[in-house]
Structure formats: C-alpha cells, structure tokens
Specification:
Layout: E1 9-14, E2 30-31, E3 34-35, H1 36-45, E4 52-55, E5 68-70, H2 79-89, E6 94-99, H3 107-115, E7 122-127, E8 130-131, E9 135-139, H4 143-156, H5 159-167, H6 182-191, E10 195-199, H7 214-220
Parallel strand pairs: 1-4, 1-6, 4-5, 7-10
Antiparallel strand pairs: 2-3, 6-9, 7-8
C-alpha cells in the first residue's frame, strides 16, 4: 500500500465558485447536520494532511473551519484559479484537490486514490472514460504548468478581462468567456509524467455525483446522505 503520508501532502477544498445554477453558495448547503464545506474539510482531515486550504471567495468568512483561506489570483479562471493558489502555497510534494460540491465522497475512496500516487507523482481518477480533475492528487512541481496555462488563457481573453485578471480586481466573468479547461491541465501534466490515471470501479461511481442545481438537491432527497465511512490506514 502506498498511502500518502501527512508529511508529503496537503489538501485544498475548492469553494470559490459563483454557484450560478444553484442560486446560492454551494459551500453552505446543509448535509447531515453540517455544511457541505465543513463535511469536505472533515473528510480530508481523516487522511492526515500536513495542511488544509480553502480556495474561497474574498467576501466570505471561513474562520470557523480553521483552515488557511486562499483567494484567486487569476480571476475568471474557474476552479483552476483556486488550484493555482494552493499549488503555489503548499510546502508539501503533493496536493489533494477536492471540489466542494461532491457530497458522496468517502475516506476509503480517497485512500485508494492516494495509493495510486507513485512517489511524488500525482493521480487523477478516470470514470467511464472521463477524467475527474477536481478529485485528484497533483504534484507541487505542476504549478508552473498551470500558471502557463492560465497565462495563455488571459492572453486570449478580451483586453478588459485580461487587465482585471492581472490587476487582481474582483469582477464577474464576461458572458461567453470560457474558463480554462481542467482536463487540459491534466493532459499537460500527464504528458510531462507528473500524473497517472486511476480507473474508477462501478462501486465508486457514486462518488462523482455532484450538486450543481436545485434539481440535484431534489434528486438527492430520495436517499440519505452517505457517511464519511472512516477506515483505518
């Protein structure tokens, strides 16, 4: 078994999205008596990371969760902006990234994912032929790869958006301006030998069901929330 040790990985919860389809901040949706964000923080802490970051909104108070908060440097870049800040901030060789809107993730699955890390190379799940880049381990050394991708995104954006992204002003992303692809980042990492892929079994497929809209919440009410399912190392 190749469990990541707390001394060689940190974790980040990506919670800075606009939640437009949900209509309210997904991080604070209730789940089994706590917020979805609190649940994800508790989940990753069971793995024993050296540090847990929250990539969050600049106007939101996260102090009760006891995590270092990171805000986007590349504005309008979607979840990769939070990942960029965390890769820059971490002092460990590996970083576990976890989207906030995945209520069915479990400790055993994340341990299996950690087992897929080879040395200081990361691992990305592959489910039904599709990569899952927002539940993955990335190496610290992938940071310059991501910065280059985000810089390229800025250079191709409308001049006003590129200017605000560089200056750090908080503005809404313009309609029609797409965020850079997380899948593209994974492909670049794989080409450089920085990550490998782990195929997800049918038994773990439920881990990737996410809450994007009110319809997802209604659908989730047909079954009770899944527990963290703690396991021993």
């Amino acid at each position: 078994m190749n469990h990541c040790k707390g001394t060689n990985f940190s974790a980040v919860i990506l919670a800075g999205g606009q939640s437009r389809r949900m209509g309210r901040d997904k991080a604070w949706l209730p789940l089994a008596g706590k917020s979805l964000l609190a649940r994800q923080v508790e989940l990753v802490r069971q793995l024993g990371p050296a540090e847990v970051f929250i990539a969050g909104r600049a106007d939101t108070d996260y102090r009760a969760l006891g995590c270092r908060v990171l805000t986007d440097r590349f504005l309008g870049a979607g979840p990769l902006a939070g990942l960029e800040r965390a890769l820059e901030a971490t002092t460990t060789p590996l970083l576990l990234v976890l989207a906030v809107d995945l209520p069915n993730l479990t400790v055993p699955f994340l341990r299996r994912l950690a087992d897929g890390c080879a040395g200081e190379a990361g691992v990305v799940p592959r489910h039904a032929g599709h990569l899952e880049p927002l539940v993955a381990f990335y190496p610290k050394v992938a940071w310059p790869v991501l910065v280059e991708l985000l810089d390229e995104h800025i250079s191709r954006s409308p001049p006003d958006l590129a200017k605000t992204a560089v200056s750090g002003l908080s503005v809404a992303r313009e309609p029609g301006v797409r965020s850079p692809s997380a899948t593209r980042f994974v492909e670049l990492c794989a080409a450089a030998g920085l990550v490998s892929f782990m195929d997800v079994s049918a038994a773990d497929a439920h881990c990737f069901a996410n809450w994007n809209s009110q319809a997802d919440l209604v659908a989730s009410q047909v079954s009770a929330p899944r527990p963290l399912l703690l396991s021993t190392p």
